[in-house]
């Protein structure tokens, strides 16, 4: 670090600095202003794009009808084209339509795709729960258990325990099912869910 003995030397040093670097500073200021303007434009563009995507999502899903293949295709294209939360929500909506049509493989594929398209932990949890239920319907208990293992957060403990119990029971593991439901009952579950799990445990004998 350069040390100056008095104020005059500091002033002279500043003059030399601006004389030697004035052009570079001017360019830097211009670039800085340009970058700020660019950032503001980009932010505004992102906000506009997000609103447009949201509106498009609402439009497509409002028209979604399992009996009309063209609406399914439109939502599927939207989900494929949008690797974001709206794309994930579209996959979730589409999966429900496929479940209603008993096209479980297509529903599972949509959910797996949607899970990859969002970073929202709660949305991922919901999609994984639905995926696990579908896998149970497909007699894929081991896959369902793996899916349940990926769900984190105490808020999901009871629902995960309920489905886990079903998966274990389908494998013939009655004690495992009992333990899962017991854990669900001991968690912060709703009274209705606790009662349902208790009934399942009672039915085990």
Automatic annotation (TrEMBL):
Topology with respect to the bilayer: Single-pass type II membrane protein
UniProt cross-references to SUPFAM superfamilies, sorted A to Z: TPR-like
Keyword list, A-Z: Cell membrane, Chaperone, Membrane, Transmembrane, Transmembrane helix
Cellular compartments annotated: Cell membrane
Gene Ontology molecular function terms on file: protein-containing complex binding
Transmembrane segments: 24-42
Keyword Cell membrane listed: yes
GO CC, alphabetical: plasma membrane
Location of the Ancillary SecYEG translocon subunit/Cell division coordinator CpoB TPR domain: 15-205
Main subcellular location of this protein, as a coarse class: membrane
Pfam families: TPR_21 (PF09976)
Keyword Cell membrane: yes
Family under the similarity heading: Belongs to the YfgM family.
Record's protein name: Ancillary SecYEG translocon subunit
